[in-house]
Design brief:
With about 250 residues, the protein is mostly helical. It has one domain. About 70% of the residues lie in helices and about 5% in strands. It contains 11 helices and 2 strands, in the order H-H-H-H-H-H-H-H-E-E-H-H-H. A two-stranded antiparallel sheet has the order 1-2. A hairpin with a 2-residue loop joins strand 1 and strand 2. Helix 3 runs antiparallel to helix 8, helix 5 packs antiparallel against helix 7 and helix 8 packs across helix 10. The longest helix has 27 residues.
Amino acid sequence: MHLHLGVINDSMLHFKSKVTYRVKYFIVSMNGSDVLGLLMVYVYVAVLLLVSERLPEDKPNLSRKFIHIMVGNILFILPLFQSRFVITFLAAAPFIVLTFLISPYSPLKIKHRASSYGHGLGLVYYSISWTLMAYIFFDRPWITGIGIAAMSYGDGFASLTGQRFGKTTYSVLGDRKSLEGSLGMFLVLLVTIPLVLIYYSQRPDPIIILLVALTATLLEGLTPKGLDNLTACFGAVAAYLLTTGVGL
């Protein structure tokens, strides 16, 4: 029995030392560009949170969607990152925890208007999407940019447009949406996706852009409970991969 426990302890110590070595390796290998990227991400998000708290209190959805849309501008910071580990586990993944802590489901009960209105876990799904894309498409950041654009600019403006002009409404599992909001999302993506591709020196193809925007819009319109931050994002990415034939 003692021998068996000794083997387990040795294995655990070996695993711990291996993980510690890899973490130290990645941290030491960070260059100035990675550090600048991290600083810009955290400072930018902190500024957005502060500004959102100063928006009119009688319009809580405005504060939430301000964060939702403006965080999308992080896609323009992605080229600074030179390490997959840094962008995934130091820049993106921590926001899964942070957004959960300000959600209604947090054990800490930290209140912030950005998550106290609408879908409580919407921003958490947002962070999960960014983290997964940052890891999978680290070498092709424009694909990550397309996904971020779909869930930030697209989904964000769908909500604002629907709230302001939505008359033709429907319900998806109790989640109220509108055709006007979907149209707003579609038009916004027709503009923003080409801008993302041009920023990353990729040639915009009108047919591909049309199909990507349409796919993201349809999935957003059919997905309830804040899960559209997952479906619109990965739907847009899947449509881009399929239509361009680049694959994972």
